[in-house]
Amino acid sequence: MTKTFNFNLENTYSELPEIFYQKLTPNPVAAPQLVFYNEELGKALGLNNEQMQHEDAVAVYAGNALPPNAIPLAQSYAGHQFGHFTMLGDGRAMLLGEQVTPDFKRFDIQLKGAGRTAYSRGGDGRAALGPMIREYIVSEAMHELKIPTTRGLAVVTTGEGIQRETRLPGAILTRVAASHIRVGTFEFAAHFGEIEELVQLADYTMERHDPEVKQADNPYLAFLRNVVERQAGLIAKWQLVGFIHGVMNTDNMTISGETIDYGPCAFMDAYHQEAVFSSIDLNGRYAYRNQPSIAAWNLARFAETLLPLLGKSKEEALEYAQDAISEFGPLYQKYWLQGMRQKLGIFGEREGDEALIEELLTLMQHYHADYTNTFLALTYDKEEDFPLGRMDEFINWKIKWQERLESQEETKDASIKLMHEHNPALIPRNQWVEEAIEAAVEEEDYNVAEKLIHVLKSPYAHTDVQKEFAKRDYDTGTSFQTFCGT
Ligand code: AMP
Ligand code: MG
């Protein structure tokens, strides 16, 4: 044990039955170096940012030393990967414990890339620097876009190379999450545990994320409903900013409703319903348009795990589960429509709104228009700057849109304000993220990434610096591919 850097850890997860984890001994690395530290997050967690960047803290991020009260463990989970059920578990992650903040919030502190565990199978338990920077940048951007997500507190390089297709610098990400409990954690409990263990997992998770459901007539059903509601809200937010997760396996879907595991993810540039970037997603299972239905599918797998707890009889449980899952579609649609109206400065609800929105999206798809920039052009009233803006079909659409705005009581200024608040000035364009990673990996230059992270802060502020940065070149995304960070 080393000094305190004011981590204030507990590890309540280790009080669950033993099937849910394997305790670990740290796997030290050769020469850790801190390359990113998230001061804003540190502050939110109640940490002393100066101490947290000291070499004693860096040793913790590297897995070379343990902070007080840490109980390092790898979590067990299973999951449906591309539709197929498999046993998984943390093959390269180590949960140290939960940071309890000064206002008594609880966040998992996990080291991703910390070495082999009982669940590593053939893997080396390590992570390459590139994918860890990618997760750090994109999760921070998501947070700034007001989308629930895990976040990175620190990235360290290990001073060790790891073997992939080529030799790459190794790194460890300190990941902060409301919890790392996944749909796959429940699948693990349902398939490999006793009913009592499933109950304990459910009770524990409810205590952490949904303590109020304990008062409900049917607490487990209320819990399921909350998870469905959170995911409907989350996926709507992804769709509204054009985020494609890339690998929505059930082990990559949290119960907390946070986005997790930024592997082959990407933001789309040109709008396309079928957009898919992941090199391993050959059939487009996780394409942009499929994300809502995949989320519903994953939630059905979650509901199945709860069946023994949901009702007095099998029939009753099944009916409750089906009802809860059937709520996903309408909830998602409600959140999505609400978000789209806001992006277009629309107040209230009218029957023609959805058709108006769909018409715009269809035009964007047909003319390969940039998703983010089309909404920005409308927000800044500068459509003529974009190829789509000069098309007759678009001009006709715009007349209908303006009629809709003029027919509402709210002023034009109120609409413009609403649009600024819901259309980001910029998103983490794939090419910018790649450039930042390349500078870091090839030249040990972390400034490119720091600058990008900086400019991506508060994207709804629409500062001059953001507007200028947003004009930078980027590939339209048609040939862009992302790879799993293994
Ligand atoms: P992911 O695609 O990152 O969600 O990971 C899927 C599964 O593979 C999880 O069980 C991971 O822990 C495991 N895994 C990924 N990379 C490695 C690695 N380098 N070594 C061991 N296990 C890994
Ligand atoms: Mg995963």
Please give a structural write-up.
It is built from 16 helices and 13 strands. It has 2 domains: 172 residues, no CATH class; 261 residues, no CATH class. Strand 5 and strand 6 form a beta hairpin. The longest helix is centred in the middle third of the chain and has 23 residues. Strands 1, 3, 7, 8, 9, 10 and 11 form a 7-stranded antiparallel sheet that branches. By secondary structure, it is α+β, with helices and mostly antiparallel strands. Helix 6 runs parallel beside helix 9. The protein binds adenosine monophosphate and magnesium ion (MG). The site of adenosine monophosphate has 17 residues, from loops.
Total number of domains: 2
Spatial shape: globular
Number of helices: 16
Mean pLDDT over the full residue set: 96
**Gap between N and C termini:** 30 Å
The total count of strands amounts to 13
Task: Give the proportion of residues in helices.
Answer: 40-55%
Low-pLDDT segments: none
Main beta-sheet strand count, sense and barrel state: 7 strands, antiparallel
Indicate the structural class: alpha+beta
DSSP strand content: 5-15%
Helix/strand order, N-terminal first: EEEHHEEEEEEHEEHHHEEHHHHHHHHHH
Radius of gyration equals 23 Å
Bound molecules: adenosine monophosphate, magnesium ion
